[in-house]
Amino acid sequence: MKKMKKIFSSKLVSVKEFGTDPHNVFSSHEFAGLIDSAMAIKHTVQINLFGGTTLALHNGRHNYIFDQIDNLETVGCFCFTELGYGNNAAKMETTITYDKATSEFVVHSPSDLSQKYWISNGFNHANMAVVFGQTIVNGKNEGVNAFLVPIRDAQMNLMPGV
């Protein structure tokens, strides 16, 4: 993380460059790999998987987060894969259900096979996750969608019953 902070503090790359200079984003991965391959994976998760997904799927309400991704105030992880289904979205068991009473979405992984597997950044550093799940609104499955989920507690995990 210390190495990643040095790279990000240099302002040589920004998640926002996916829209303006994607070659710079991809070059940053190559250079990060020359420094430290383990750090390069964290870099890729932060910029591509977490940041790139957030950028690609965001709406105007999410503009605030891109500078936070760039300065590592928001460190993200990517929660798509499930133990029993890999990246097979059609079989994904995790649900994200809209609760009208609280005006919130509730993430639920109902079985051992629906456990989410975090790609890097997870336990030690992430404070936000992009979580994919079957979206249920008014009892209707609206398909798989991605949600930004704050990680409030380092012990929190997306395991069955959560």
Structure description:
With 162 residues, the protein is of the alpha/beta class. The chain folds into 2 domains: 73 residues; 74 residues, Butyryl-CoA Dehydrogenase, subunit A, domain 2. The chain has 5 helices and 5 strands. Strands 1, 2, 3, 4 and 5 form a 5-stranded mixed sheet that branches. A hairpin with a 2-residue loop joins strand 4 and strand 5. It is globular and about 45 Å long. The chain starts with a helix and ends in a 12-residue tail after the last strand. The relative contact order is 0.15. The C terminus is likely disordered.
The major beta sheet can be summarized as: 5 strands, mixed
Which CATH class of the largest domain? Mainly Beta
Count the E strands: 5
What is the CATH superfamily classification of the largest domain? Butyryl-CoA Dehydrogenase, subunit A, domain 2
Strand percentage, roughly?
15-25%
Low-confidence blocks of residues: 154-162
If you average the pLDDT, what whole number results?
88
State the CATH topology of the largest domain.
Answer: Butyryl-CoA Dehydrogenase, subunit A, domain 2
The end-to-end distance, rounded to whole angstroms, is 28 Å
Q: Label the CATH architecture of the largest domain.
A: Beta Barrel
Write the layout of secondary structure elements.
Blueprint: H1 2-9, H2 22-35, H3 37-57, H4 65-70, E1 76-79, E2 95-99, E3 104-108, H5 122-125, E4 128-137, E5 140-150
Parallel strand pairs: 1-4, 2-4
Antiparallel strand pairs: 2-3, 4-5
Properties at a glance:
alpha/beta; globular; 162 residues; 2 domains; disordered C terminus; five-stranded mixed beta sheet
